[in-house]
Amino acid sequence: MASPPLVPVLVGPTGVGKTAVAVELARLRPVTVISADARQVYRRLDVGTAKPPPEVRVRVPHLGIDLIEPGERYSAGRFARDAAVWLAEVRAAGREPLVVGGTGFYVRALAEGLFREPALDPQSRERLRVWAARLAPARAADWAARLDRGFAGGGRQRATRAIEVALLTGRALSWWQREARATGAMRPWYIHLTLPRDALRRRIAERVDRMLAAGLVAEVEALLAQGVAPEAPGLDGIGYREVVAMVRGDLPADALPEAIAVATRRFAKRQETWFRNQLRAQTSDVRRQREVWTLDATESPGTLAATICERWHTVAADV
Question: Are residues 24 and 129 in the same domain?
Answer without folding.
Answer: no
